[in-house]
Amino acid sequence: MVDKLDQGLVPAELGPLDYKGLYNAVSKALFRAHVEGQLKREIMAEPDRFVEPDPELPLALLDQKEAGKKLLLITNSDFHYTNKMMNHAFNRFLPNDVGWRDLFEMVIVSARKPEFFQLSHPLYEVVTDDGLMRPCFKVNSGGLYSGGSAQMVEKSLDIHGDEILYVGDHIYTDVSQSKVHLRWRTALICRELEDEFNALVKSHDQKEKLVTLIQQKEIVGDLFNQLRLALQRRSNSRPDACCNLYG
To answer: What is the rounded CA–CA span in Å between residue 182 and residue 91?
Structure first.
């Protein structure tokens, strides 16, 4: 946006076209999108436009659950958004009457990460499908909660530290804080690396050719240096004692 401002490409209706005005415009846009919920309302209205279906994901989680793993969903999103998007992304791919909530030992919405990993916020239980909540002080298996803390999760499941594998897509909010404060094992989802990984796989043959060419270059370089040294000695009428290592 700064580059666009410098190039005169920022619309005048955003306000004064200086750096302070640009900062204010971006701040207002972020506030409307996240705090007022404008972005999530648009996504909920047209989930197919924003969600790329992955039929294997809910089935993979179901496999983990059936193998005896305890799965948790911890999200900063509120209940209405979480329920809408999980219904859309998961339920149609699950067998029989299994719903997305059946996959998880516990679901925590409005978690307020990264504070969730450091502080203890009030805990509420979501008791109705329209999001009605009531205060509570103890969590139970299969429950749906809002707020709370990571310490509460550890206590309720009687597991701690590296017994927990936390999977997240934000390197600070998810991965860094859960490891630093709780010593949880972590896994980072970084979709941006998919194209790079695929490119590495596809370029395997070219990489081998490149390694071979580099090795040949080193041999030619060594030979060239020997020949240059021999020429220098001959030009100075000195004995040519240079050995040809390559025959």
So the answer is: 32
